[in-house]
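cron nightly-structures :: item 1 of 1
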Amino acid sequence: FFSFGAGEVTPLFYARPDVEKYKSGAEVILNFHVLAHGGVTRRPGLRMVAECKYTDRTAVVRPFQFSTTQAFILEMGCSYTRFYKSNAQVTSGGSAVEITTPYQSCQLYDVDFVQSADVLYHLHADCNVRKLERYADTCWRFRTVTFQPPPSFEFGARPIAALDVDATVPAGSDLTATALYNTAFLNADVGREIVVTAGTNAGARAGIKAFTSTTVVTATVCEPWVSLADVACGSWKITDSPKTTATVAAATPVGATTTVTLGVAGWRGTTALDDTDCGRFVLVNGGTFQITSLTSTTVANARIVGEASGTTAAQSGAWSLEESLWSTTNGFPETGDFFEDRLYLNAGHRFIGSKTSDYENFAVGVQDDDAVYFPLNAKTINTIRAIVGARQLQLLTAGGEFVATGGSDNPITPTNVRTQSETTHGTRGVSPLRIGDVTVFTSRAGKQLREFTVRADSISDVYVAPDLLLLAEHLTRDATIVDLAYQREPRSTIWAVRSDGVLLACTYRREENVVAWSRHTTCG
């Protein structure tokens, strides 16, 4: 044997001398790097730069690179971030420069990042989007991003009341629905549906036929109730938008205040116990208006977010009341990237692109530079775990890998977007690596490391995702991969942190067919 070019290999490979890589494999490579030329070299030593703020809690390091001459390392720990530059901790007045963050130790590995020059967006499914801004080496600002406007969707109303029906009648029959312990209904609910979302009667539906009072309506059953048990508060909703006319007092300019008036009572939030429409968005006459307060159940004060075409009254069904896709109730974006001068973020199985060159504006429309809103529909609905802006927009979900394009040599626009399923491996929430024209991602179970790339002999961009750990599957047999990083110099290396603290290194030179793994341990 004259080479270790295959790296450490699995015992399952020991009985395969017929395979070429058998001759260059090793049983164990510990604290050595495999060289692309076939030899090995000792792992370099470590340098003590500074001690973490909390030595008994999890901390992670992340890059912040403005340019080749202005690069930082972020030490992220429980509720804080510190900074390092040129092999030293950044200090001011003898103390470490530090900012406060909302992330707990258990959340750190799930925070994703998107960088634009001196701004680093922080994404986590349980937290508002934040951005870290650098003004000087010792001056950093960390604040919540306020999207103007955010992407929105028509969810309906969430009455803060339990629900009782008087009969379990078949579809097509009428029943009386009564709200318990609180008010729930308004005149403009006639024509909307009551839908049970959880509990014994989950799936039951009835169209509201007549309004009796704020606690009683008559409804026609679409899907029957199976039980007369009360439906708990939070386990049902009223679909769509209020069924009445909506009139805005002013259509322009953006930023101005105006009123939105309904034909009959339809706004919620006039009492402390109501589900509130404050903060929601009215899309009418091509414009967007954000409700700031309520004067009554028919008059709402609003801020003009997007200019409308006029102030003509919009009929029922010609306007909508929508709420932000990102909220404490709906969750927040957990991944994103820049692509074709848009900031793309996820909302569950949807991918949302900002307006062109306006990264915090997600106003919808039909113009080419308006925001892009597209659900990723497949046989199974899976959350998008990673968005990668490559030659095409890559969307890695828990159930498979997709690409989105605007068609042949065309950019993605609101009216021109096409998604295509490529592979079906699935990924977990570990941020993938972009290495040349390859995206390296962790499989859903955390046991495999796959490279998402166009097949070499493909004429029409057919993607494949071979497993880089195929010949070294034993390295993740009893642990999972929780973090990834890529080192370009002095040798191309993929670093993978295992859940037990062991560090895996892969000498990665795909053009020479070198994929060689080794293990590294420290006293820490």
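cron nightly-structures :: done
The longest strand covers residues 127-136.
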